[in-house]
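Incident review: delayed structure delivery

Summary: a single-chain prediction request sat in the queue longer than the usual turnaround. Root cause was a stuck worker, restarted by the on-call engineer. No data loss occurred. The affected request and its eventual output are reproduced below so the record is complete for anyone auditing the incident later.

Affected input:
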Amino acid sequence: MSTMIILTDAQVVELNNRIGQIQRLIESAQVIKAGGAPQPAAVTQAKPKAVKAGVTRRRRRTLLNEAKVIEIKTRLAAGNESAARIAKSFGVHISTVNNIKYGKNWAHIKVPV
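Output delivered after worker restart:
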């Protein structure tokens, strides 16, 4: 004989949360079989990436150099152009130009006003 249980929406949400917690515990913990020794949870190891001889880190390709940053800062100081237009002319994102404008990037480059 089956029994019907009526739950409110809040009870369904709480039950789903608890089921999720139990699933995470099972995935992260060791599972102990009845009468047996603990069995470690399955662990997958990431395959190491192939590394060329002598190369330890990949370098980023930079679109800007000091001369370009000086030009960007000069154009920003003139106030004739928007950051979006300057960014487009240098092939960079507007956030890059704004970071230069507010001193988050390339702050060591000083341009006389």
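Verification: The longest strand covers residues 31-32.
Action items: add queue-age alerting; document worker restart procedure.
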